[in-house]
Amino acid sequence: MRNKRLPHSIKGGGSSQNRGEAKTILTHKSQGRKEGQTLQVALIGNPNSGKTTLFNALTGAHQHVGNWPGVTVEKKEGIKTHQDTTFRITDLPGTYSLTAFSIEEVVVRNYLFNENPDVVVQVVDGSNLERNLYLTVQLIELGVPLLIALNMYDELKGKGLDVDTELLGQLFGCKVVPTIGSKGYGIRKLLATIREVGIQNETDKRDIQVNYGREFEEEINGITEKISSETEGKVPARWMALRVLEGDNDAMTRLTPKLLSDQGFHEQYLGATLRLEKLYPEGVEEVITDRRYGFIAGALQETVKRTGIGKQELSEKIDSVLTHRFWGMPLFLLFLWLLFQGTFTFGAYPMEWIEIGVGWLSTSLSSSLPQGPLSELVVDGIIGGVGGVLVFLPNIMILFLGISILEDSGYMARAAFLMDKLMHSLGLHGKSFIPLIMGFGCTVPAIMATRTLESRRDRLLTILIAPLMSCSARLPVYLLFAGTFFAAHAGNVIFGLYIFGVLMAILAGKIFSMTLFRAKGAPFVMELPPYRMPTAWTSLRHMWDRSSQYLKKMGTVILAASVIVWFLGAFPRTGGETPPAAESYIGEIGKSLAPVLDPLGFNWQMGVALVTGLVAKEVVVSTMGILFEVGDEEDIGEGSVLSNALRNTGITPLAALAFMLFVLIYSPCMAVIVAIWRESGSLGWTAFSVGYQTTLAWLIAFATVQIGSFLGLG
């Protein structure tokens, strides 16, 4: 909430002379639209407003995910049919405003300008109205066909508040529909209202504007009049005038070449800026922001009523424990420990069932297919490789389900808040922990998320340490080796590996900030959303969205890598016979790595697996499944075939621990390397990232073996 309130007013109607934007309101496809047609709907809202949950409730399974053209920001689209109308719904990236400071804001603005959606549905968090409605004011000024979905309506009620939605809609010049996306409340009414807004004429919409004060309005009207004669109705002239006064360079590029070359126009807006800056020393942009918040405050004062005692104290009471300066961090570590214990314990049963199924399929195909290269490719290559990774799918799903519950409840933001304090004490940027948290799922989006950081120094520093956070692709390796060599304490070992990765990221960040990046990071205020009770559908949906990526990788990258590894292990042949593994192409590759890996206690199969793991970390397990020919084994009922093979090769628990640490730290997969190169824009920094991680991995593994041997733990 902002403390500073300035006078406000709300206008409706009036003459076009007083409102220069009247001539230049955006032309939308909804004009004259008839019933029974298709409506293009844009879903827009602040982060954490429940926008994606509402999108899922609207579209269900009828959606697909891709990327926006030219950028790596995720693009979600879905289709919904209601009555006689088909809705094509686009879930735009979360944004707080329509400025052009981040790639998400640029994507949203470009979409609104270029696609001209029939209806723009803004999802507003009912528990944080003032902040969310700031975007609403900007959308009103942009002149889009707007509809407000007042989401999380139950949380607003839980605070002892209620909103006169009809009056709020009149004040903002659009319809307001209460919704609870996680429970499906208000969805049918929202669809009906979208249809109503989409098929009505543009003239049915009331024209609302914020009054910025006499001095501001004079300057705005002068620039608006100049712009309106050149924009040809493509962009609201008043909106453009405000953006010019705020110093928005991206908006300036949308002006016509004739206007940009007009010396009189430049003198007019520069003169206006100078005059306003003399009147308002705090800055033009700050005054515009305050007047918008004043507009919002006045609207809320008229429409929001207290109906009872609020429940917001509950979040404060929970935070007094979970974010406590002393036991907040131990509780966070306890929750992580329980998560990894559950991942290993509860995942063991379905993992065993899948393993039995893979073994049965392998045996059946081996007996039915004629002996030869084709049989070996299918059984040893495809089944042995892909099947070796497939068995860990239940563990991956349980991990993602746990992370989803922590995120949906609001606790993950508290975890970031706790780590934010620690990272600041070590000289790191607190905001950097947001992409680092994402690294637990996948490092690629974690690297991409660094673009939200303001300075290049902070982006590069975070990019360099993000791969040290253990991604889900490494989990199958941990499950295999921890379950094989530390069966009684597997959950604790995996938990320790994740914590070790976090500590290494913090240590590396501290060293880099003291050497390579000595400039001080910018301060950052961590936002804490209210606690929410996760719904089963939402949590399962998030779990499946992430797990499906794991399945897709098995059908593409891992399958291709498995075939290549099988080929290298099956040739060269003498007399049509498969060569001994050590004499195959892949055996020669493995033996060439011996001088580097022998000091770590790794055999040649482990070395080959590390090399193929550069494609994707799951390939480490599939490679071992092929090299140890688990598809040919028959003792399926005697425990994990691959685990038995690992124990029989003489690998010690100490070497297994060193191997897991090496996998945790060494060079990330190719997809991450490409992401680092794209986001850093430098091959030098990309090579440095790969080089320092691989060197650090070897040193950590070597130290583990040496110290363990000295202590008699070998």
Structural topology:
Blueprint: E1 10-12, E2 38-45, H1 51-59, E3 63-67, E4 74-82, E5 85-91, H2 103-115, E6 119-125, H3 129-142, E7 146-151, H4 153-158, E8 161-163, H5 165-172, E9 175-178, H6 187-199, E10 208-210, H7 214-228, H8 237-245, H9 249-252, H10 257-260, H11 263-279, H12 284-303, E11 304-306, H13 312-322, H14 328-368, H15 373-390, H16 393-409, H17 411-425, H18 433-438, H19 443-448, H20 456-465, H21 475-485, H22 490-515, H23 536-570, H24 585-592, H25 594-597, H26 604-612, H27 619-627, H28 641-648, H29 653-665, H30 670-680, H31 683-710
Parallel strand pairs: 2-5, 2-6, 6-7, 7-9
Antiparallel strand pairs: 1-10, 3-4, 4-5, 8-11
Helix pairs in contact: 3-12, 5-12, 7-8, 7-11, 14-15, 14-16, 14-22, 15-23, 15-27, 16-23, 20-22, 21-22, 21-28, 21-29, 23-27, 24-26, 26-27, 29-31, 30-31
How would you describe what is shown here?
- There is one protein chain.
- The chain has 714 residues and is of the alpha/beta class.
- It has three domains: 28-205, P-loop containing nucleotide triphosphate hydrolases (Rossmann fold); 214-306, Helix Hairpins (Orthogonal Bundle); 329-520 and 536-710, no CATH class.
- Helices cover 59% and strands 8% of the residues.
- It is built from 31 helices and eleven strands.
- The strands form three sheets. The chain has a seven-stranded mixed sheet, sandwiched between helices. The chain has a two-stranded antiparallel ribbon with strand order 1-10. Strands 8-11 form a two-stranded antiparallel ribbon.
- Strand 3 (63-67) and strand 4 (74-82) form a beta hairpin.
- Helix 21 packs antiparallel against helix 29.
- Mean pLDDT is 80; it is low at 1-28 and 631-639.
